[in-house]
Design goal:
Strand content: 15-25%
Strand order of the largest sheet: 3-4-2-1-7-9-10-8
Bound molecules: aspartic acid
Helix content: 25-40%
């Protein structure tokens, strides 16, 4: 059995957290490959080491003093070293980092040092081998991750290492310079490592006990989801439920390796299992409820639209030409609606309006802003009658008007648009209907 365990920034923010992490790792010898983030926040208004490093980079580029901000970074690591009683000196590392910052080694280089140094300390504390991610994770010159090459290199290298720490978040280009994933990218590194060693499990240790059924800011005391499929998680994540970097699913998914979200501060909690597919029924009819504000819709009407071949394509071409991605597209016989992210759309709105006029000559073209989308997600909804009906009734009971409905043919989700001002109330109404008062709670 091989487990890859990734620990997030809050799990490794201090010496005390390092000790919890080491206990977790030593408790199970299958935890052989460890992927750390950089030290995160120790308390609410603390600064993550990655952000301190970006500040060092900005100072160096602006020709300002780097020693001040770099000393703050060093303080964080020295606190960990002394708290753990480690016989490790970072003198040489900090000398090199300072020099490289001054010689403009790049923004990614600066940011990556957070994971690099944390990886070195964690490896020393655990007695594991340290493998620099720059040697095993490849990006091309356009900073795109090189999947196949990395997989080969990593698999070959890790064959020779029984127990190793591989820092998250970064890799290198062919010329040796450093590139990073986007923020939160250590989750991706963990997934890549899990695939390379064909792990049985990818554990992702963080500061929550798993994926929650709904946003705890809206629903207090909501429950942790026990098992969720990759597809369900994608749907919920798209709607703002964030536990994992969204690209972290793909490497393990291609090998059918499950992800277990765990809480470093409550290791006894089972957390959430994210799996390819499962026979396990969700506890409730819906697996999760999520939503997001900030959408706008473009409503287009034209008599005999349905007879005009290529109408949708011409409309969508306008969005493509303006580099806008379309989120949903419900349609009627003579109407179609395109839902977009308002923040992206508003910069291009006049170009889109004139483009649509030129392309399809609509009778009516109206914009509506300030929309929120809600998603009810669950594999249990498939072939179950009355789910949509219950959702609409729950919203109607609260006097909430539905602006749009969209259900994919997979029956995995139902998407409902409402005015932003009803967002929280709508989530609560759906939660009440499908979780609190679920008349047929399903038991695992
Ligand atoms: N340290 C990086 C960040 O703060 C990457 C990570 O934590 O995954 O985004």
């Amino acid at each position: 059995m091989i487990t890859v365990a990734k620990f997030g920034g809050s799990s490794l923010a201090s010496a005390e957290q390092f000790k919890k992490v080491a206990d977790i790792i030593h408790e199970d010898p299958s935890r052989r490959y460890i992927v750390p983030s950089a030290p995160g926040r120790r308390f609410d208004d603390d600064t993550k080491v990655t952000d301190l490093l970006y500040a060092c980079y900005n100072a160096a580029e602006a020709g300002q003093d780097v020693d001040g901000p770099l000393a703050l970074v060093r303080e964080r690591y020295e606190e960990i070293i002394s708290g753990l009683g480690l016989a490790v000196s970072l003198d040489e590392d900090f000398k090199t980092i300072r020099q490289n910052l001054l010689s403009h080694a790049g923004r990614s280089y600066a940011a990556s040092r957070g994971e690099y140094l944390n990886g070195k300390l964690l490896a020393a504390f655990l007695g594991f081998e340290f493998i620099d991610a720059a040697d095993v994770i490849r990006f091309n010159d356009a900073d795109e991750f090189e999947d196949d090459r990395t997989n080969l290199m990593l698999a070959k290298r890790l064959k020779d290492a029984d127990y190793a720490v591989i820092p998250g978040f970064y890799g290198s280009r062919d010329d040796g310079s450093i590139a990073t994933f986007s923020r939160g990218g250590s989750d991706i590194t963990g997934s890549i490592v899990a695939r390379a060693v064909t792990a049985d499990m990818y554990e992702n240790w963080t500061d929550v006990s798993g994926v929650l059924i709904a946003d705890p800011h809206i629903i207090k005391d909501t429950e942790v989801i026990d098992t969720i499929t990759y597809k369900e998680l994608r749907e919920l994540a798209y709607m703002g439920a964030s536990v994992l970097h969204e690209d972290a699913i793909f490497p393990v998914r291609s090998e059918g390796i499950p992800i277990n979200i765990r809480n470093t501060n409550h290791p006894q909690d089972k957390g959430t299992m994210i799996v390819e597919s499962t026979c396990k029924r969700a506890k409730y009819l819906v697996t999760g409820i999520a939503g997001k504000k900030g959408f706008a819709s473009i409503n287009i009407e034209k008599d005999r639209m349905n007879e005009e071949i290529g109408f949708c394509r011409k409309v969508l071409q306008v969005f493509e030409d303006n580099k806008l991605s379309m989120e949903h597209m419900p349609s009627g016989i003579d109407t179609m609606t395109v839902v977009v992210h308002q923040s992206e759309f508003q910069h291009r709105e006049q170009q889109v309006i004139s483009g649509i006029h030129r392309a399809v000559h609509p009778d009516v073209l109206e914009l509506e802003s300030g929309l929120a989308l809600l998603a009810i997600v669950g594999r249990g909804m498939q072939d179950t009658r009355g789910v949509a009906g219950r959702a609409f009734t729950a919203l109607a009971r609260k006097n909430i008007n539905i602006k749009m409905i969209d259900q994919g043919s997979s029956e995995l989700n139902i998407i409902i648009a409402v005015k932003e001002k009803y967002f929280e109330e709508a989530i609560k109404a759906l939660y009440e209907e499908f979780v609190t008062n679920c008349p047929h709670p399903r038991v695992d």
